[in-house]
Amino acid sequence: MSFCSSIATPQSLSLLSKTKPIINGGDYKLGSRFRASADVPDFLSADWLESRRKKPFGPRLNFSAEEAVKCQLDALKYNDQPRQDYGIEVMYRFAGFDPFERSTYFGPFFDLGQFERFRRIFHHSTYRVLLGHKERKILSSLFVEENRFKQRIWIRGNRPEEEEIFQFTMVQRVGGSWDGYWLTESLLHDGDALAGGLAY
Questions:
Q1: Residue 75 near residue 168 (C-beta atoms within 8 A)
Q2: Model confidence pLDDT, tens digit, residues 60-95
C-alpha cells in the first residue's frame, strides 16, 4: 500500500486531527483541528466591574459636545465623590492638550503635563467656584465650526455670593486614536484674573 493511500483512510485521518472523529449515521466527520487555549478565560474576573468603577470617567465616542460639557460639570459639582478631586481627574481625561507642550487650556500658556499642576489651578480662587457648585445655567451655545463648539455657563458656587461665568471650547478630533471624540480645548474664566496670578 502506498503512503498516499494510507493517509486516505478514516482511521489515519483521525490521527491528524486534534479531536476524535465524530460518527454520524455511519459517516466519519473530523472535528476542529484547533482548540481554544485553556489559559484564556471565557469570563470576566470577579473584580472587573469594581475596577471599572474606580477608573475615572472620561470621553465617550457616543457623547455629543453638549453631553461632554455636562458630564464634566457634573463631575466638578460632586468633585470629591467617590474620592478627593475625582471631578478634576475627569476634567483631566477630557482635556485635549498635549501634556508635553505648554497649553492655553486656562488662557495663558501653562505647563499642564503633570496632573498636580492642572489640579492646583482648579483650587485657585477663580476656578474653585466650579468645585461643589450649587447651581448652573447655560447662557449660550454655539457651533463655531462643524467640529468646534463653545458654551458659556453661569455658575453659583457653594460659598455666599460666589458667582462666575466660564466658557468651554470643545473640539471633535479627526483622525488618530481620539477620532470622533469631543475633547476640551479650553476652559476660560470671564476676566483675566489668572493671567497674572499663576506662573508655571
A1: no
A2: 999 999 999 999 999 999 999 999 999 999 999 999
